[in-house]
Amino acid sequence: DGGITQSPKYLFRKEGQNVTLSCEQNLNHDAMYWYRQDPGQGLRLIYYSQIVNDFQKGDIAEGYSVSREKKESFPLTVTSAQKNPTAFYLCATRRPNTGELFFGEGSRLTVL
Amino acid sequence: GEDVEQSLFLSVREGDSSVINCTYTDSSSTYLYWYKQEPGAGLQLLTYIFSNMDMKQDQRLTVLLNKKDKHLSLRIADTQTGDSAIYFCAEQSDYKLSFGAGTTVTVRA
């Protein structure tokens, strides 16, 4: 089945640790996105990539890093510099013609 | 910059119609979208409307677009308990989507 796979679904980390969230897609879409979701605030864009080996900062990129070495993969690293990392993280790809986003099931990160 | 606004909560009786409203700011948006999110899950596209349309109907869903007022609405006919979820409107701008904060719809018996 075509889709987007995010892992892990739940992740706990101690303060000061970096963690990497995985996002894999088999939809053959060029563009991929990472959003952060907090209660009552909707989705905020962290990073996006329109093509392999290229990515751009979104509205809240500080404390995060990404890579796009393969079309299928767009991992997000939450670094220790991110002051409030506890959140629900959503990865998405974009259909070229209509611009709609397809979302993974999300990863919930909790910092202890 | 983009700023999409929607009311945060809506309570509706089962069988009634739900109407969720949204305002957006980018008049150059080509498409506008409605997404649904169930607890602990990702967002699922419900429908979208092209900016040169006023209305789009898809089974129980009706989308109305007023470009002059930058107002978008989603009507769900015959609301069911399975429609309880958070609904997001989104506008497209420069290959990115900007989302509202989401409207939590609660369906009561």
What profile does the largest beta sheet of chain A have? 7 strands, mixed
Range of helix content of chain A: under 10%
Structural class of chain B: mainly beta
Radius of gyration of chain A over all CA atoms, rounded: 13 Å
Helix content of chain B: under 10%
Biggest interface, chains and residue tallies: A-B, 26 and 23 residues
SSE order of chain A, one letter for each helix or strand? EEEEEEEEEEE
3D shape of chain B: globular
Oligomeric state of the chains present here:
heterodimer
Number of strands of chain A: 11
Beta-strand percentage of chain B? Answer: over 45%
**Would you identify the regions of chain A where 5 or more consecutive residues have pLDDT less than 50?**
none
Give the helices and strands of chain B as they follow along the chain.
Answer: EEEEEEEEEEE
Rg over C-alpha atoms of chain B, rounded to the nearest angstrom: 13 Å
Alpha plus pi helix count of chain A: 0
- Derived structural class of chain A: mainly beta
Strand content of chain A: over 45%
Alpha carbon gap, first and last residue of chain B = 41 Å
Give a verbal description of the structure.
The complex is a heterodimer of chains A (112) and B (109). Chain A contains no helices and eleven strands. By secondary structure, chain A is an all-beta fold. Chain A starts with a strand and ends with a strand. The relative contact order of chain A is 0.32. The mean pLDDT of chain A is 94. With 109 residues, chain B is mainly β. Helices cover 0% and strands 58% of the residues of chain B. In chain B, strands 2, 4, 5, 9, 10 and 11 form a six-stranded mixed beta sheet that branches. At the A-B interface, β5, β9 and β10 of A face β5, β9 and β10 of B.
Question: Can you summarize this structure?
Answer:
With 112 residues, chain A is mainly β. Helix content of chain A is 0%, strand content 52%. The termini of chain B are far apart.
